[in-house]
């Protein structure tokens, strides 16, 4: 990555990667930490460019890591929805936005077409942030489905489409554009001020009274729901689809992966089934045990597709970490989601600014 890196360069690289791996793990408890993950994603290239000699070009090694970590924290945000979101409408919209973007990024990697990132914009991230902001003072379940639908539409059309076009189609950098055309910066600042004024004068007076005081942390889960009888086929299917899409995407992004998308999908389905069988026999495994088991399963699965001397240990560790973390979170959050909407009456929706 760097020819003869210094200790300080390695320290910065390791610190950034660890921060981008560990901060998202707190999102299920503190959802607004997704903003920290977003900021880390925004500043890491600038920090590396300023303080290291890392190749940050489109074919550089860090770009693969960067793209993989982007999807990683969004996947954890999605799983945290299962644990925390009380609005069924908001959850369904967020679920659609997440999978829609995931398919789009996969299409981009497979087709090498930047247009896919415009057609499949990352509206999910901003929608998640809006929900987290609402949850600071209100129960999102009491906000109408129409509000959540219009929130997604406005974010999609007015925020993400222009942003995705600017970044991926026009391929322009905002800071460089402002340096070349200062009026763009002035216009952007005026636009932000106009939005703030619009919120203060129009939206805020129409907002309902808060349901509770400031609540930065998600409410604790009161108890672990009982394990379902028999094989939870729907949950198992979604977990296989989720991890399969992510694994195929990472296989396309990360270097030294020589297996095809079909081979990755087959391996992931086998690993998910093996994890489910182990959980059914011995109970839900803790994360370290899952990590060890899944690394072994990945090694065994790789024997069908690659020679043993080509086994990329670093990439395998990342895959094992990804599968283990998401399996561990999903198995604990999915029953909470199902119990919430199976037993709890949905609060009556009230008016909210749209």
TrEMBL record:
Q: Does the keyword Membrane apply?
A: yes
Keyword list, A-Z: Membrane, Transmembrane, Transmembrane helix
Q: Give a yes or no for keyword Nuclease in this entry.
A: no
Q: Where are the transmembrane segments?
A: 6-23, 30-51, 93-111, 117-135, 147-163, 183-203, 260-278, 285-305, 311-330
Q: What is this protein called?
A: Uncharacterized protein
């Amino acid at each position: 990555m760097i020819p003869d890196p210094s200790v300080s360069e390695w320290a910065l690289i390791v610190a950034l990667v660890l921060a981008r791996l560990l901060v998202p793990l707190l999102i299920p408890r503190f959802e607004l930490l997704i903003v920290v993950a977003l900021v880390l994603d925004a500043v890491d290239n600038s920090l590396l460019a300023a303080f290291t000699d890392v190749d940050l070009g489109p074919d550089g090694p860090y770009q693969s890591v960067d793209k993989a970590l982007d999807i990683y924290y969004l996947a954890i945000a999605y799983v945290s929805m299962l644990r925390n979101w009380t609005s069924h409408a908001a959850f369904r919209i967020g679920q659609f936005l997440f999978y829609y973007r995931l398919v789009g990024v996969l299409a981009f990697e497979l087709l090498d077409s930047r247009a896919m990132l415009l057609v499949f914009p990352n509206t999910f991230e901003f929608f998640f942030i809006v929900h987290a902001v609402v949850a600071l003072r209100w129960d999102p379940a009491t906000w109408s489905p129409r509000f959540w639908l219009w929130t997604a539409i406005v974010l999609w059309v007015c925020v993400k489409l222009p942003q995705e076009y600017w970044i991926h189609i026009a391929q322009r950098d905002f800071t460089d554009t402002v340096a070349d055309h200062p009026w763009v910066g002035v216009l952007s600042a005026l636009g932000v001020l106009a939005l703030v004024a619009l919120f203060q004068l129009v939206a805020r007076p129409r907002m309902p009274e808060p349901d509770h005081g400031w609540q930065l942390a998600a409410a604790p889960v009161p108890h672990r729901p009982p394990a379902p009888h028999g094989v939870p086929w729907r949950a198992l299917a979604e977990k296989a689809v989720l991890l399969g899409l992510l694994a195929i995407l990472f296989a396309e992004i990360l270097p030294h992966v020589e297996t095809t998308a079909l081979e990755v999908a087959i391996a992931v389905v086998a690993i998910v089934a093996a994890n489910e069988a182990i959980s059914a026999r011995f109970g839900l495994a803790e994360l370290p045990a899952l990590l060890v088991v899944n690394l072994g399963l990945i090694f065994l699965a790789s024997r069908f597709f690659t020679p043993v001397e080509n086994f990329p240990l670093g990439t395998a560790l990342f895959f094992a970490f990804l599968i283990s973390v998401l399996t561990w979170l999903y198995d604990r959050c999915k029953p909470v989601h199902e119990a919430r909407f199976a037993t709890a009456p949905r609060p009556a929706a009230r008016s909210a600014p749209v």
